[in-house]
Automatic annotation (TrEMBL):
This is ATP-binding cassette domain-containing protein. Residues 4-229 form the ABC transporter domain. PANTHER family: ABC TRANSPORTER, ATP-BINDING PROTEIN. Pfam families: ABC_tran. It comes from Streptomyces boluensis. Belongs to the ABC transporter superfamily. SUPFAM superfamilies: P-loop containing nucleoside triphosphate hydrolases (SSF52540). One of its GO terms (molecular function) is ATP binding. Keywords: ATP-binding, Nucleotide-binding, Transport. The keyword Transport applies. InterPro entries: AAA+_ATPase, ABC_transporter-like_ATP-bd, ABC_transporter-like_CS, P-loop_NTPase. It comes from the Bacteria.
Amino acid sequence: MTRIDVHELTKEYGGTRAVDRLSFTVEPGRVTGFLGPNGAGKSTTMRLVLGLDRPTSGTATVGGRAYASLDQPLRRVGALLDPQAAHGSRTARNHLRALAASNRIAATRVEAVLDEAGLSAVAGRRVRTYSLGMRQRLGIAAALLGDPEVLMLDEPSNGLDPEGIIWIRELMRRLAREGRTVLVSSHLMNETASFADHLVVLGRGRLLADTPMREFIDTQVRPRVRIRTTDDAALGALLDGHGHRAVRDADSGRWTVTDARVADIGKLTARAGVPILELAAEEGTLEEAYLALTADATEYTARPARTTTGQEASR
Ligand SMILES: Nc1ncnc2c1ncn2[C@@H]1O[C@H](COP(=O)(O)OP(=O)(O)OP(=O)(O)O)[C@@H](O)[C@H]1O
């Protein structure tokens, strides 16, 4: 089984510390989402793992070895870093054939990955005529070419249409099920939530979290309960009387009780005889959890828009 091991990794560009004493392990058999604000150091870390840059200090290894020392590296590690990497004047098929030949990969793999990426019908076209999504598919096909145990994909959903997004999600899940090591960076939180088992989160080059996804959300987002009644006055008084913080949305008539569990609120309202139309636990989302964690680690933020409270009545 092949792990990616990053140990005390540091990379400085001039005065900028892009990666700062970073240590984590990417395990096989699961998809690890690699998250962090713009400039957090995700791409730099991937480049260091691939030996495309030299670390200032520390190590990054694949299966215990530096990438540069791997024999036939494309058979061990497949990577998508830059979808523009293919030569525009070549056809997609020829681009992959050249890659296969230089890495002693069987030519039959070319047709297999073209098919896998949905590019068979356009494989004879020059890459310069490809859309961003098609280039992205070609980059993923190239990453899969050597049937590698380790895959590192930098924002693979970029430019993909909805069908392509579903494809890449299923592909990553399947690769993990096959026991491969899959590291995927993304800024799309809903997407990441749909495919990642585990998360590594960076902020300003440092490790902010290395945790299973569900645990990450549960520790960052307090539990909430959604509740609707025919007697708002009674419910409001009951929650208030028991020290619960609750907000009622005027449009839907739903209350959201923060920091509460559905079993407790259910018992409370049942005992008090408050009629209930709806009662549900509200799951925290990855986006909420991520924003809570990275609030202080975001270098580049737009001025927040002025928010309006609408018709919410808060208690
Ligand atoms: N070749 C380089 N020369 C100088 N600075 C660089 C270089 N590559 C990256 N950096 C700097 O290192 C920091 C980390 O950049 P990196 O691209 O790794 O972040 P990222 O997390 O991938 O960001 P994004 O989400 O925007 O892709 C940034 O401050 C960036 O400007």
